[in-house]
Structures are given as C-alpha cells and as structure tokens.
Amino acid sequence: MKSKIKIAEMDFSAPQYEIRSFNTINKPLKTVKTSGKAKMAGMNNNRSVSIHEEITTVLFLSLTVFALTEMVGLFNSAIIVLEYPFSSIIPMIMVFFGILGLLGILTDSRINIIIALIAVILELSILSMILVTNPMVSFLIPTIALQVLLISLSFFGFMTIFRQQKTQTDRFFEPEYERETDLAIEIKNLTKTYDLGEVQISALQKFNLEIRRGDFIAIMGPSGSGKSTLLNCLGALDRPTEGEILIDGINISQLDDEGLAWLRNKKVGFIFQSYNLITRSTVGQNVEVPALVTPLDTHRRKKKALRVLDDVGLGDKYYRNPNTLSGGEQQRVAIARALINDPAILLADEPTGNLDSKSGATVMEILQKLNRELHVTLIVVTHDPEVGSLADRIYYLKDGMNAGFKDNIKI
C-alpha cells in the first residue's frame, strides 16, 4: 500500500505535466437539453391520461350503472334466472367492483383495477355458462350487450394496467425548466463531514469539478484523501454536508429517497472492487437485479442480461454460480450488472484492485471500449498509475480537496 501511494505522489509531482486548477477536457460533444430542476411525478397530478384509461373509465362507469339498474329492476340480464339470493347479490357485487375499478383508475392503483377485473371476468364466466346451458333464456339481447361490455372492459382494463407498469419508472421526473448543458456531472463546493460525536472528520472540502459527457476520468490520491467518499456522493449513495451535485442537470440534493433510488437505477451504474455478487444466485440473476424494478418482463430481462454478458465475454456463463468464476470473470459480471439499465455514467471504485495484472487489463479494456464506442461517461477511482494513464484526464485529491489534474497524452 505504501509503495502505491508513493508512486501516485511521484506521478502527481512529475515535472513533465503542468498541474492546474480544474477545467473541462476540450472534446467536441453535442450539447443536449436536459432538466435543470426536477420533481417527483408522484407529487404531480397533471400526468397525461391514455386513451385506454379513458375508455376503461367509461366502461367501469357503464358497468356500475348497469349493475345499479339491475339491482332496482330497471334492467334485467340472464343473471335473473339464478336462484335467490344470487340473482340479487351479483349485481350488488358488481356495483362495488365497478366503483373499485373507477377508484383504481383515478388513484393509479393497479391492484384495485386488477381485483375489479377479476370480478368482471367471473361475471362474464357466469353469464356465458347460463347462455350455454339455456340459449333460449329471457333477456337474451341485454345479456349479450352486457357480455360485450364485460369483454371490452377486460381488454381495455388490462391494457391500462400494462401501460401503468410500463411508465411507472419513467414518470419519476418532470422538468420544471430546461437548460442546455453538455456536462454529465457538475460538482459545486462539495463538502462532506462525518460527525463522530466529539470528533468531526472532513472527507471533502469545497470540492469543484466538471465532467463532460463521454469523458473517461481517473481519480487518484493517497488513502484517506476522499476518493471513495466522492464516488459515493456522485452515485447518490451518500448525501453531501454542503454543496451541489448535478447529474445531467438534475440537482440530486433536491431529490427524496425515492428520487435518488430512481437516479441510481436509471442514470448511474456501479462497479465495486469486491464485486458484491449474490453467491446463492446465478450469474444471470445477479445481472438482472437492477432491472427487477423496470417494466421489463422476465423474458426481455433475461434476453437483455444475456446480451450484456455477451458484451463482456461471458455469454455462456448465465447459469453458472459466481463462486465458480475467477476474480476477473466476477468483475466482468459486475460490469454487466452495471450495464443492464443502460446508464449514461459508470462509477468504478478500484475495479482492478483485487485482480492480477492480466485480468485487470481485460477489465480496463472492456471499460475503455464502453467509453469509446458507447460514449458512456466513465469515472474510475484507482491507486494504480497504469489504470490512471488510460484515462483522458487524472484528477488528484489531497486532504479532501481538488489538488489539480493532468491530461494524458494519447497517440
């Protein structure tokens, strides 16, 4: 450990590199529009309503009216041939479930809609059995009309549920205003202090940094300089004491826990030194974990996991247990897991720290390819000067402060 720190210090003070205050790398990147401020969609009642929801609302309302008129005797269907009290109870039940379905639509409660639709399917089954056993039953035309209503309600109701599931993770944020930025990350006066009772430890002090989209950045410094703390704050795993962090223009300090969870799952991928794989699950199941809260169904989730595993050269290891893999292969599984939700930013904390030189080189080659071909913004914390030399720029930390940077000259 001491030798690594010494090498980092030697590189830091190398005379052939000019150490300056932070700046951005001069890369031609496309400027994109992004949300400068965001709020949770759960707090916003002005979301768009689909045609499926509108039709389902009308059908639930029609079902409630049909059931009410049947209760009071103004409308009769084949249900009337059932013995008492079923002929009276079923219309009452359908009024209840019709109202429950309406409430489900209004409150975005999928469970209420599903329960109401189950009741709809049961009534449809009862009507169908009555017609099959007694095709000449009275009130044939009203019964067929009710069946058409129930079939339509079943179809549009389940379409509404599918749409809600598909969009639930994509409606977390609504921009209140837009601004133009080509910055993936902006750090402004970031301070992180750990209060240990009588002792306060300042891990980061007024730290400033700008990282453009598609940059490959290495962060180096001696142990205890604040590298991991910085990475945790960037990934919304830890909240800063003071200052601001903007990810794609979103000020993450303004987000609640649900918003931060969305950000971590949607915008950022994590690669840890110790892999953090679940040993009782297969490789494929480990990769799929971040996608469990997305709208992807089981088939599409598995298909995507196989694709990202293939991208890191482990397409044939889906059903293997992580414990049967080498350290380099386990780290590649961790990379695949970080990629499953197509993040714009990858944060890697000592990704080669537990690997031999050959496995480490393979891992860094994969990360470079992701940065170069997919334009993923890559931020790597490392003690290894060889890893640092692969980056576009190295930022140095010392005592929680930005101690300057150097650009790597690439031929």
Please give a structural write-up.
- With 411 residues, the chain is α/β, with parallel strands linked by helices.
- Helix content is 44%, strand content 20%.
- It has helices at 2-12, 51-71, 86-107, 110-133, 140-167, 227-234, 257-266, 283-288, 298-311, 327-339, 357-374, 385-388; strands at residues 32-35, 38-40, 173-175, 178-181, 183-196, 199-212, 216-220, 242-247, 250-251, 268-271, 345-349, 377-381, 393-398, 401-407.
- The strands form four sheets. It has a six-stranded mixed sheet with strand order 10-11-12-7-13-14, sandwiched between helices. A four-stranded antiparallel sheet has the order 6-5-8-9, covered by helices on one side. A two-stranded antiparallel ribbon has the order 1-4.
- Strand 8 and strand 9 (250-251) form a beta hairpin.
Topology:
Blueprint: H1 2-12, E1 32-35, E2 38-40, H2 51-71, H3 86-107, H4 110-133, H5 140-167, E3 173-175, E4 178-181, E5 183-196, E6 199-212, E7 216-220, H6 227-234, E8 242-247, E9 250-251, H7 257-266, E10 268-271, H8 283-288, H9 298-311, H10 327-339, E11 345-349, H11 357-374, E12 377-381, H12 385-388, E13 393-398, E14 401-407
Parallel strand pairs: 7-12, 7-13, 10-11, 11-12
Antiparallel strand pairs: 1-4, 2-3, 5-6, 5-8, 8-9, 13-14
